[in-house]
Design goal:
Blueprint lengths: L4 E3 H9 L5 H15 L5 H5 L3 H6 L6 H14 L5 H13 L11 H4 L2 E4 L4 E4 L8 E4 H7 L10 H12 L9 E4 L2 E2 H9 L7 H6 L5 H4 L25 E6 L4 E5 L1 E4 L9 H8 L66 E2 L5 E5 L17 E6 L7 H15 L4 E5 L5 E2 L2 H8 L10 E3 L4 H13 L11 H8 L20 H5 L2 E3 L2 E3 L10 H7 L21 E5 L6 H13 L2 E5 L18 E4 H14 L2 H7 L11 H4 L8 E8 L18 E3 L9 H13 L10 E2 L42 H6 L12 E2 L3
Helix pairs in contact: 2-5, 5-6, 15-20, 17-21
Pfam families: PDZ_CPAF_rel, Peptidase_S41
GO molecular function: serine-type peptidase activity
Length: 771
């Protein structure tokens, strides 16, 4: 069962009619500030390096922006609840940090937005600049089925052409809603959370690596309402103009996230998200009403579980919406059968000579090349699968070259980046330097935790010992981690600092101690080569490994790439990007080391109060920790979206400026462009990478920027230029020779099914970026 939908304009008019509750808006902004204070890059965002501003994103003053929103609320410049929500969402989103998330209830709880079409961006020959097409047209031109959700009239027209045995070609899009297509799309892409502009552009479009993740990815692309595009109103209609002069207009839609029973006026709708009383937390008592001796809960919801109340007082939960499977019996569309994969299929191994997809056949020219596809670092059997594949590839099957495909990888569990790295450098310790903002709240947490963990301390209550045992695994225990040179911290001040950089105060450089018993206990496993676990066998020579991304590499993925490039000098290839000449970054997502949910922060603080005796609680109430006694950030956000911050920066070894890697522009060694066949078959992409790097197919594939031992090609052709000589349009005019070469019609069923995908993320990790 799908969520019900209505016309986007109808939904927009409905929610825009809800008048602003001024006091509630001000209270929400104030409640966010203590949590935002944990965002590690908050000061650098306001004054980033010049190269970052020129090539990546402009500066943004988050605290100044929050104050401006309050001022506009007070002056009447913001009149509606939806207008307030848009301003608040856009401000946080403008940081382009996928760990830094706040989605107000007016943005994510009532409606999600979408368009009834997906787009693709491809180069005719891998050299000319890419053009944009309607994916459903592209699929039909290739002979595949079109999903029933596509505009009925268009589907019927395509069916008539195919029934007549004719071939036709789609026409490139030249304008969207009256603007040049490239200009419109680059502007729209800024609503996404990635920071690199080429990665943002790629995420607009239908992508095999995203689609196979079903509800956990950007699905059909942010332009169509996948990923974070689902929270941005796309206007009432999408009007397209094509290169052949034809036009087409689609009505955009809104999917309804709640029951509207009894909500028959703006006033009643207002009640569910702007008149919620904040019961608050009694920090000096048992937090959340939990009895420390019995564990019995009261009616107060835990942070992050969604405390919104509907018209009848019941919690608002998303309606059931099963995500349709993108693949069929043969597996996900566009991928060949793997030699091995994890139980959730997020990690899989392939041999490039025997791989065969919708377009490709086995090819002995690639007999030396293996591919490790890693869509995230979350699978429970990640360690075992990676070890078996890498060992079998090199020892049994004599593969000597490896492509690591990290496309559409939002990260996962931080420590698994270390695990993967060790297979290529068993005797090397990756640096992994991180730091926090040295705020009053952070210092107070650490100072009191360190004192309470001392044997025989007098600051804890009788039941506090159990809680403090759990605190041994947290950052606030100075004994857990190691410093920049691999030594244990000797006290909390030695860990907290503070140290000044970029106009802010930060902790000392903190590294995970992979031999630490508390860390191993919390993980449930030891990283290869640490804490008694055997070292892995060295498999591929790092010089014979290349990393492939589409720019959507974030968090734990970024950490692995940092290790691979800085320590092992692994080659990198980025694919796709904007229709302009130039380089593209390998990592376009957040490079921060650790995401902290608002609920994590509040739970740790309230647990600290809970562990303390009466005197300690009174002392803590005199600190900034007393500001975390509000439930508003949770009550005013969607049930299934956790507010969060990037708590840890990644800091490069021996960087005298101690600049977060988030603000370093780093181009890939080689940039390739998507070709038509790649839209349907990942094997084509992998073989292009192998050919560009190692000349596996005679070196026919050239980097359009960068390269390996030879200059890159400069893309030619006009911006948004034609493709495959397509001058006939999507209105059913037949042309000859328009099918994608080598494509088998019968292999396309999964693509048609995948057009109905929606982003409904459920996965979480300490180093994971929500789509």
């Amino acid at each position: 069962m799908s969520l019900p939908t209505v016309a986007a304009k109808l939904a927009y008019d409905c929610i825009s009619a809800v008048a602003l509750n001024v006091s509630a808006a001000n209270d929400l902004v104030d409640s966010l500030k203590p949590f935002v204070d944990w965002q590690s890059t908050i000061k650098v965002l306001a004054d980033p390096p010049a190269e970052y501003v020129k090539k990546v994103q402009p500066a943004v003053d988050i605290f100044g922006g929050l104050d401006k929103i309050k001022a506009d609320v007070g002056s009447g410049a913001i009149e509606s609840e939806y207008g307030f929500g848009v301003r608040l969402y856009d401000l946080i989103q403008s940081a382009h940090d996928g760990h830094f998330v706040y989605v107000p209830d007016t943005i994510g709880s009532v409606f999600n937005w979408g368009r009834p079409l997906s787009l693709v961006s491809v180069s005719e020959d891998g050299v000319k600049l890419p053009a944009v097409f309607v994916f459903e047209d592209f699929l039909a031109a290739a002979g595949g089925p079109v999903a029933t959700s596509v505009n009925t009239a268009i589907s019927q027209g395509i069916g008539q052409i195919q029934a007549a045995g004719l071939e036709w070609s789609p026409s490139p899009i030249t304008e969207i809603n009256g603007k040049p297509a490239a200009e419109y799309l680059m502007e729209w892409s800024q609503h996404d959370s990635l920071h690199d502009r080429d990665a943002l552009y790629n995420d607009l479009f239908y992508s095999i690596p995203q689609a196979v993740q079903e509800g956990e990815g950007s699905a059909v692309g942010t332009f169509a309402g996948g990923g974070r595009g689902r929270w941005v109103y796309p206007d009432a209609e999408t009007a397209l103009t094509f290169a052949n002069g034809s036009t087409r207009t689609y009505e955009n839609f809104a999917s309804i996230q709640i029951s509207f029973d009894g909500l028959d006026s703006p006033e009643k709708l207002k009640g569910i998200f702007s008149s919620i009383p904040d019961a608050g937390l009694d920090l000096t008592g048992s937090p959340f009403g939990m009895n420390p001796t019995t564990g019995g809960p009261n009616s107060m919801p835990m942070p992050g579980t969604g405390g919104q109340q509907g018209a009848a007082g019941a919690p608002l939960k998303p309606a059931a919406d099963p995500v349709p499977a993108a693949g069929g019996a043969t597996g996900p569309p566009g991928y060949p059968p793997p030699t091995i994969r994890t139980s959730d299929s997020s990690v899989a191994g392939y041999y490039l000579d025997t791989a065969a997809g919708p377009v490709t056949q086995p090819d002995a020219a690639f007999s030396e090349v293996a591919v490790l596809s890693v869509q995230n670092f979350l699978a429970e059997d990640f360690k075992d699968t990676v070890m078996k594949f890498l060992n079998a590839s090199t020892t049994n099957d004599k593969k000597t070259k490896l492509v690591i495909d990290l496309s559409a990888n939002g990260g996962g569990n931080i420590i698994l980046a270390y695990e993967l790295f060790k297979h290529f450098a068993p005797d090397m310790d990756p640096f992994g330097g991180t730091r926090f903002r040295a705020t009053e709240a952070f210092n107070t947490m650490g100072a009191y935790t360190s004192e309470m963990l001392k044997p025989g301390n007098t600051k804890t209550a009788l039941f506090g010992g159990t809680i403090m045992q759990q605190y041994k695994e947290l950052i606030f225990n100075y004994q857990n981690d190691i410093d920049s040179v691999g030594k244990k911290f000797v006290s909390w001040p030695s860990k907290d600092g503070p140290h000044t950089a970029q106009g802010d105060n930060f902790t000392s450089i903190i590294r995970w101690d992979l031999n630490d018993a508390a860390l191993v206990a919390s993980l449930g496993f030891s990283v290869a080569g640490y804490a008694g676990a055997p070292k892995p066998h060295k498999t591929f020579d790092p010089r014979d490994v290349v990393i492939l991304t589409d720019g959507y590499c974030a968090s734990t993925c970024a950490t692995f790439v940092e290790f691979a490039r800085q320590h092992l000098k692994m080659k990198t290839v980025a694919i796709g990007g904007r229709p302009i000449v130039g380089a593209m970054q390998t990592v376009g997502g957040v490079k921060g080391a650790n995401v902290y949910g608002f609920s994590d922060i509040q739970n740790w603080i309230t647990s600290l109060f809970m562990a303390g005796n009466e005197a300690t609680k009174k002392d803590l109430m005199k600190t900034s920790l007393s500001k975390y006694n509000t439930m508003l950030p949770f009550l005013r956000s969607p049930y299934d979206i956790s507010p969060s911050v990037n708590a840890r920066d990644n800091i490069r070894q021996n960087d005298s400026l101690a600049l977060p890697t988030q603000f370093m522009y780093e181009a890939a060694d080689c940039r390739l462009l998507y070709t038509p066949q790649m839209i349907f078959d990942t094997t084509v992409t992998w073989r292009a990478v192998a050919d560009a790097v190692w000349g596996s197919a005679g070196g026919k594939t050239k980097c359009v920027d960068g390269g390996f031992g030879m200059p890159g090609l400069l893309p030619s052709g006009p911006l948004m230029g034609g493709m495959m000589g397509a001058t006939q349009g999507t209105r059913g005019v037949a042309t000859k020779g328009a099918r994608v070469p080598g494509l088998e019609t019968g292999a396309l069923g999964g693509f048609g099914k995948s057009l109905g995908l929606r982003t409904r993320p459920t996965k979480k990790g300490d180093g994971y970026m929500m789509p």
